[in-house]
């Protein structure tokens, strides 16, 4: 039986002073803190049997993958199936709990939280993310792979693999910045799912706090 692990990594913190929902917009790169988060993930994998690194083509995912690939002397493959989910609020200032969803102008957009109506259907996200993970598993068969993606797609993938309903409360996602959700396969069978936060010591730091530490 061939044992393979696919580690799905969420990118690090992004420089976003406007605090908009940037989604798939180009030009959003890691902040200084985000770069350190990516390095922490690379250190987390040091000494492991990583044979394949793939990432969403968005800048923040590619940047997060860079120190990981460098640690193992690997090239970074790109896979569109790892992209951030499409969202109708892209480019706007909107977030969980900020009151935007109570604005009558948004009611039609948020009419169906189960699909959801404001963006890419959860089932579509689950299907493409599953395909990306299985492709990474096959590319690293008998070893380990790293796939860098984004919070919502990773969380939907995990819920799909755990056979849970896909609609959920965004505040309850276990998928912090630079976190690692690991899918363990025995042959073609999913044998277990693990979770780690190698950049946990950096979570909650503002840029000013990060700089004050002299990091």
From TrEMBL:
The source's superkingdom equals Bacteria
- Report the SUPFAM superfamilies cross-referenced here: Phosphoglycerate mutase-like
Q: List, alphabetically, the InterPro entries matched.
A: His_Pase_superF_clade-1, His_PPase_superfam, PGM_Phosphatase
Q: Write one Pfam family the protein is assigned to.
A: His_Phos_1
Q: Which organism is it from?
A: Luedemannella flava
Q: What is this protein called?
A: Histidine phosphatase family protein
């Amino acid at each position: 039986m061939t044992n393979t692990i696919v580690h799905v990594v969420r990118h690090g913190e992004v420089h976003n002073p406007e605090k908009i929902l940037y989604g798939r917009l180009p030009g959003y790169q890691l902040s200084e803190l985000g770069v350190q988060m990516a390095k922490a993930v690379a250190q987390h994998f040091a000494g492991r049997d990583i044979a394949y690194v793939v990432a969403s083509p968005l800048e923040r995912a590619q940047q997060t993958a860079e120190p990981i690939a460098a640690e193992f002397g690997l090239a970074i493959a790109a896979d569109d199936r790892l992209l951030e989910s499409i969202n109708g609020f892209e480019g706007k200032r909107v977030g969980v709990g900020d009151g935007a969803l109570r604005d009558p102008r948004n009611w039609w957009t948020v009419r169906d939280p189960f699909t959801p109506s404001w963006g890419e259907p959860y089932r579509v996200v689950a299907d493409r993310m599953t395909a990306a993970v299985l492709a990474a598993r096959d590319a690293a068969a008998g070893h380990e792979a790293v796939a860098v993606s984004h919070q919502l797609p990773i969380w939907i993938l995990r819920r799909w693999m755990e056979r849970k309903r896909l609609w959920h409360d965004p505040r309850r996602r276990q998928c912090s910045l630079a976190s690692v959700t690991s899918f363990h396969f025995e042959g073609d069978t999913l044998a277990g799912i693990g979770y780690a936060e190698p950049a946990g010591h950096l979570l909650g730091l503002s840029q000013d706090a990060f700089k004050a530490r002299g990091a």
